[in-house]
Amino acid sequence: MNKQLGEQLRKRSKAAWLERIGKTVSFSALALITITVFAIIIFVASKGLATFFDNHVSLWQFLTDKNWNPTITDSKGRPEVGALPMITGSFIVTFLSALLATPFAIGTAIFMTEISPKRGARILQPVTELLVGIPSVVYGFIGLTVVVPVIRTIFGGSGFGILSGTFVLFVMILPTVTSMSVDALKAVPRYYREAALALGATRWQTIYKVILRAATPGLLTAIVFGMARAFGEALAVQMVIGNAALMPSSLVSPSSTLTSVLTTGIGNTVMGSLANNALWSLALVLLVMSLIFNLIVRLIGRKGALRK
Fold this sequence. Notes:
Elements: H1 2-10, H2 14-53, H3 59-64, E1 68-73, E2 79-81, H4 84-115, H5 117-133, H6 136-155, H7 162-186, H8 190-198, H9 203-214, H10 216-232, H11 235-241, H12 258-265, H13 274-307
Helix pairs in contact: 2-13, 4-5, 4-7, 4-10, 5-7, 6-7, 6-11, 7-10, 7-11, 8-9, 10-13, 11-12, 12-13
């Protein structure tokens, strides 16, 4: 009897087996994701660095030269693979769209959380979710048929350029920044509001002096995420920016971004050629910028945790 009881106690229960299976599946999924991410980084890095190691292009030339035409060489016999116009265009359109979207997003978030939560949840939240679900090509098509003609009518020229790309990206990143701003404002403890009102502060003083300051790390995270989305957007920007690999001379002149040059050129090059390697180098720049954006988000989150 005691022997049978001991064997039953030593035998694993069904719950223990299920827990072990759950841990194994979770660890396998985590390992698969980690391996996939590192594989992508290694693959893009190996392809992108081939421009500098195999084709012997100077990194300084690649980052500072203004001429982009990998199929020809300049007077010194060097290939024209200057990525500065695309890098400049990407940063300009990213910062302008974030600058334009931030006040609208934060204002909408304040309305949804502090001024009229019920109406905001009933009206603005479905609209925000709808904007998130619209495909990029639809945004690009709307920009091509609406934004570009308006810019052409008001400012002249072809209508294609950084300004058109800015307006399209503004609409695209607005729901992302808005939804994350709403979460940041909702995360502010309720007793912050109650303490400010108890001290005689008005609603707007409470919002400006207390809530926004307490939610600053979350709001900065939302803005950085929006910038990362804008920096990596390809199809919609390609349709309205003009795809001219030239240094931006104005906001309404045709320009290009890293993503627009990649999408238009990657299918027209031979794998292993200089032109193809140069495009992979642009992809490597995009990957590095994505990692930098993620690092900034982590630093902001760490500072916010220390403040609490």
